[in-house]
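Reviewers of the previous submission asked for a worked example of the structure-prediction workflow described in the proposal, so we include one complete record here. The input consisted solely of the amino acid sequence. No template or homolog information was supplied to the procedure at any stage.
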Amino acid sequence: MSSLLPPLREVIARHGLSASKALGQNFLLDEQLLDRIAAIPGDLSGRAVLEVGPGPGGLTRALLRAGARVTAIERDRRCLPALAELEVAFPGQLRVIEGDALRIDPASLFREPYVIVANLPYNVGTALFTGWLGGEAWTPEWTSLTLMFQQEVAERIVAAANTDAYGRLAVLAQWRSTAKIAMKVHRSAFTPPPKVMSAVVHVRPAAMPDGVSARMLERITEAAFGQRRKMLRQSLKGLPGALDALERLGIEDQRRAETLSVAEFVGLARELS
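From that input alone, the workflow returned the following structure tokens.
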């Protein structure tokens, strides 16, 4: 039955779904493109997948076609009837949870490792991403993240030190995981087209460095990049012990945050943990 699904445009028109600006929605309708996104995490047949903000279910269809068992969290009630049609078309493969993904712990939804694949709503994408990367417990229950962001945000996630895009997001994404841009998506692929280009980021967890507190690393990067134009002696002086730790590590205190590598930030967090 899944092969007889009506085109997405038809589903959107029939259910009167227009993308909500307040919810940061932009719908992707190109089925070939959606299949390519669903292929990024690798073979999904029989795998548990979490999708956030499925909207009318474009990416959901691609994931289901790839054989995934999808749990989708959607807070926009208007989209639920369209998603219910997919539950019928792919029996036993889809469960839809109405709710706010920022308030749901994904680990509570699964009893097995899972992957997260989502065309994230623009207004909550970064908050969800940092939440999934945070916390002291590591490795996480998710085995990979495949997430669509505005291209500018994607570039901040994969940025190297000493570049304009490098900041807190890069350190938090790279200190215990690997992040790469898997594909770029032109604004014309969306309905309505957003003002900016988009990109899909693929993240895999890596080993966590020994003796480092995630919370401490968050505090250091918050302080250092919160005043990124200032020297470290200025931006970190409010953090107890930070200036002494810089000295012990041989990091000059007149450097600025964007010149420190991820490894230097990790070393600093280890000294202070």
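The domain at 2-205 is CATH 3.40.50.150 (Rossmann fold). We consider this example representative of the routine output the project will generate in years two and three.
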